[in-house]
Amino acid sequence: MPQHDEFDRIVRLQATLQRQKIDGLLVSQPDNRRYLSGYTAPDHGIQESSGFLLIPAEGRPYLLTDSRFTLQAEAEAFHFKIELYKKGLLKLLEQLASRMGLHTLGFESDYFLHSTFLRLTHMAEKEGLALKPQSGLVEKMRLIKSEKELNLLRKSTRLNEKVFQSVYNTIEPGMTEREIALAIDLTMREMGAEGPSFDTIVAFGTNAARPHAVPTDRELQAGDLVLIDMGLIYQGYCSDMTRTFVAGKPDQTYLDRHRLVRRAQLAAINAIQAGVTGFAVDKAARQVLIDGGYGDYFGHGLGHGVGIAVHEEPRLSPSSRKQLRAGMVVTVEPGIYLPDWGGIRLENMVVVGEEGCETLNHDTTFLDL
Amino acid sequence: MPQHDEFDRIVRLQATLQRQKIDGLLVSQPDNRRYLSGYTAPDHGIQESSGFLLIPAEGRPYLLTDSRFTLQAEAEAFHFKIELYKKGLLKLLEQLASRMGLHTLGFESDYFLHSTFLRLTHMAEKEGLALKPQSGLVEKMRLIKSEKELNLLRKSTRLNEKVFQSVYNTIEPGMTEREIALAIDLTMREMGAEGPSFDTIVAFGTNAARPHAVPTDRELQAGDLVLIDMGLIYQGYCSDMTRTFVAGKPDQTYLDRHRLVRRAQLAAINAIQAGVTGFAVDKAARQVLIDGGYGDYFGHGLGHGVGIAVHEEPRLSPSSRKQLRAGMVVTVEPGIYLPDWGGIRLENMVVVGEEGCETLNHDTTFLDL
User: Which residues of B fall within a CB distance of 8 Å from A113?
Assistant: First the structure.
């Protein structure tokens, strides 16, 4: 009964809506939409939505979409009543609000266009409907992963490791960053992923000094440092992993720096468990880098949540004061970046447990040098 | 002097702002941002923007972004003053509005999140700034293409044709829709495109009866009808083309239907010139299909504008009453869709002229059977 997850989520969301006296919630954010309904059609930007959910505080939820998506919606979101908007979303919403007797309507303020809001306001005034902008209602539910979700995240990570290993075996001097990135994207799809979960990063030498490097036509030379940051989407769930290595034999400087970053990563992983703050985990890794003399070369946060979205809550960073809870999934990705030399980042994903955590990555070939 | 386009656009936009008494316009829509500045960094959804433009009614325009994009912004948007937001967009906007002495601020209502609007409203009240939601200001400028833009659209279309031909030569029974779609995406990049301009459609047989089919693992069999709808981005400009053919020898039914769709396409192309409405062009094609007995099997509009975005104004459809103007670029894509048989769609791009139009596609191999 693999689809019961979505049903349970609707029931939990409806309990929240009842508590907050929201008669119906309009869900526009695509990750939230997929999480609640199982409907996988992606948006092409916020201006080309493939549908909206309308979740009443009780009773059967609705999926509002257009005729292009009818078949997919019916097949995937089978708990939902499918309604097609022929004359636009607002017209259909007006009809449904009236039919369902809604007095208050919530909408997702963080993923709702101002121009749509203006039209919604106009309609609401006409219908005597009170609008209640919401923020984070569904995102909060997504923080804690179910056992089914954890299994998909495990599989996504394993597949990501396999793709890495497969492409790694083909890397040789003369290949460009773009060629390797393209091979990774291609291999992901060949091996059964929906696609990459973010723009694949492949950076040689000094290019790796930029945490968000974009692949270039630079050719690999023997002795170059290589940083690869890659992730894929497997049955809706994202993976995210970074490995750094040397094409050929690493020198002592590289080895020292790599081992320092790995020690920082392990320090953080050892610190992770329910009740610890994102700040404390970040600090555990950061302190190792500071003590090693590289504190000034680690300019980003230590990690972020991963699930249906590749970047979601919680954050592990100097400003994240919230406590981790069991069932959260986060990346642990310390790095050091030296503009004239290059960068080393090592990234794993872990599941927060009541005691300790579970590392989703299994291949340690490029971690323990 | 290839970069002068952007400078001219700023000057024209500033004239509009002065007329409309808008002291500054905040540009958030990524295509508009690229059009005005030359800055190519893409957004990863509206929640992960790579920057905003702030165009004052006179004087030098600003590009607001974060430190990840400094180098790219400086290199590409060299007419702009680059400002980094370290404490968020709103804080920086507040400083700039005060420094520049803005009393009214326009923003793009069609690409502006409600939650950001709430924070902007808060800031504006504090600063005594009047907010003026705008719709279509820059989009209207983008309707008419410059000679430089037309050349890029010509090149984009030619490259798209080359990619099609290259992949077509490799198609053989046993290949899946997904494999062909993947080969197209890969070949685009290998041949110098930035990537596909939309999700490539490859559909065999009855799958082609859905206008927005998503590639599946269905294997090609000799005699199958094949519909390919593909487009790429070349130096920022999109192409969009559909071809339908049969793997092997087409039967008489196929030939009759294909020729009917081609006649509908040519009727529309012959009707296109400045002053004609989108409705009239759609009707020219639609009437051919109606007369041929297939009027009920053409369920979508005839075409759409193409430029920096693959779907933009104007539309050619039964509801588009606006007149075409010289320099607009539109697709002409009639189709017929029969659920138990398949679909045929033929799509070219044309430039509207004062008299007649110019077809950007040159390869007619799969058009005139």
Answer: 109-114
